[in-house]
Amino acid sequence: MSLPKVNELEENQVHDEKVQVVAFHLAGAEYAVEIKYIEEINRLINITRVPRAPFYIEGVINLRGSIIPIINLHKKFNLAGQNFDERTRVIIFGIDNIKAAIIVDKVSGVMRLDVANIVEDNQFFSPINTEVIKGMIKVEDRLMIILDLEKMLDTEIN
Description:
Layout: H1 6-16, E1 18-26, E2 29-34, E3 38-43, E4 57-63, E5 66-72, H2 73-76, E6 89-95, E7 98-104, E8 106-114, E9 133-139, E10 142-147, H3 149-157
């Protein structure tokens, strides 16, 4: 009996690797972000407008003493207008002690995706800024765009 080569073992581990994501909808398309950054998902709460903020910053919220900026992805990605309703959610995330939130039309749920099936090509035809796209994946009969929250927050800071 021969043992598999180290490279074959590493390759099988990569193909078996899963990533857990929160899936959500924006303007009729489905998106996802890695759950490791998500702190909580809330209903839309009272947003305080901030003068001279970028057009896509909806404002800030006070969540248990933390002031958190709210990014309106419809505005940031130049998508069709957004109507806030009972399904609208705010996804709060944190990276390196910096908190922010995104407004989404509705949350689909949490799922595990095979990393090997994620296409990480930045040459997508997409209405959004491709630098914040981590990749795309087909899940059953749906196509999902995976956003990179680290890059999104990095572009906000810089």
